[in-house]
Amino acid sequence: MLSRRFLLLVVLACFGALGCRGTQRPDVTFVGMCMGTSWKVTIVRDGGFDADEVPGLRAAIESELDGVDAAMSTWRADSELSRFNRAEPGDGVELSEATWEVLDLAREVHDLTGGAFDPTVLPLVRAYGFGGGEASTTPSEEELVELRARIGLELLIDRRPILDKSVPGVEVDLSAVAKGYAVDRVHDALVANGVERFLVEVGGELRVRGERPDGGPWRVGVEDPRTSTERVPYAIVSLSDGALATSGDYRNTVELDGAVVSHLFDPRIARPIASHVASASVLAPSCARADALATALAVLGGPAAVELSATAADFEVFVVERDGERLVEHASPGFERCRVPLD
């Protein structure tokens, strides 16, 4: 996967920087690399359950992660999306149920946010030097006109299980959902294996179930966007069941024509975002949904994000915006209820 233009790594778990002070160490931990980033699963022994005795549990975790990567990577030439992106109109590509599920979610978030999220924006991303593209200058107006003609969900032709395109050069990138979706797949695999208390984290996006080793809720944090090297928490929330994903503009930028350009793009105008959003975090039952919404809300900005959360009522938001040297917070009431003081 992209390693990635949405490289968040802005979420810190109970282990690591926040620590689990005063508690026993988690009983079982699996770590690895997949989709161009790190992953970690922390499991609590519970009611006599011993994760070490579950045959192939690590293999089950890696199978879910590898399956998402094989289907949705834009870096692997043999992935479903890479084959679709190379295809010409009329040469549709058969997609797996998993890829269709993520594409449907992407369309749902696109509609919910008025087009602030669009998985067909990849040609624009590459034109600015992200996502494997190369750029030394900002695209010209003529180039932007050509790029806009290749962006839009209406250019995709749904003939399930076949996905086709109506014009050449249309590409799909599900990286803003895939890590969260991978977290959900691992979550479901663990539950199917009898695991009830755990934390799953893939590249900064995470989901928890049950309680941590000391019996309390998991504490997870949103990284301070003012730090360029050290990863320190800016806000901490308490979770027992649910997911947290964050999108930020401070880890992945390029300089074009003397200006710093964010890796986050507004598909509605086919340009990098011009807002002052430093980071946007979403709490939701599903990590895939939280992942996609975090990207979209970074485009919309704080006030609109809080308003949308109140309307939708199935996710909570926390947006940090820059105002000169200050940081300004926009949080939904539900997020504030989950928030705990920094130590």
TrEMBL record:
In the UniProt record, the signal sequence range is: 1-19
**Cofactor: how bound:** Magnesium. Can also use manganese.
Tell me the membrane topology, using the record's own terms.
Answer: Lipid-anchor
Q: What is its EC number?
A: 2.7.1.180
Q: Which reaction does it catalyse?
A: L-threonyl-[protein] + FAD = FMN-L-threonyl-[protein] + AMP + H(+)
User: Which InterPro entries does the protein's record reference?
Assistant: ApbE, ApbE-like_sf
Which positions are annotated as binding Mg(2+)? 176, 291, 295
Keywords from the named record = Cell inner membrane, Cell membrane, FAD, Flavoprotein, Lipoprotein, Magnesium, Membrane, Metal-binding, Signal, Transferase
Q: Which Gene3D superfamilies match?
A: ApbE-like domains
Its cellular-component GO annotations read: plasma membrane
- The superkingdom listed in its UniProt entry is Bacteria
Cofactor annotation: Mg(2+); Mn(2+)
Localization terms from the record: Cell inner membrane
- Which GO molecular function annotations are given, in alphabetical order? metal ion binding; transferase activity
Task: Identify the Pfam families for this entry.
Answer: ApbE
Q: Does the keyword Flavoprotein apply?
A: yes
Q: What does this protein do?
A: Flavin transferase that catalyzes the transfer of the FMN moiety of FAD and its covalent binding to the hydroxyl group of a threonine residue in a target flavoprotein.
Q: Which family does it belong to?
A: Belongs to the ApbE family.
According to UniProt, the name of this protein is FAD:protein FMN transferase
Could you tell me which species this protein originates from?
A: Rohdeia mirabilis
Gene behind the chain? apbE_2
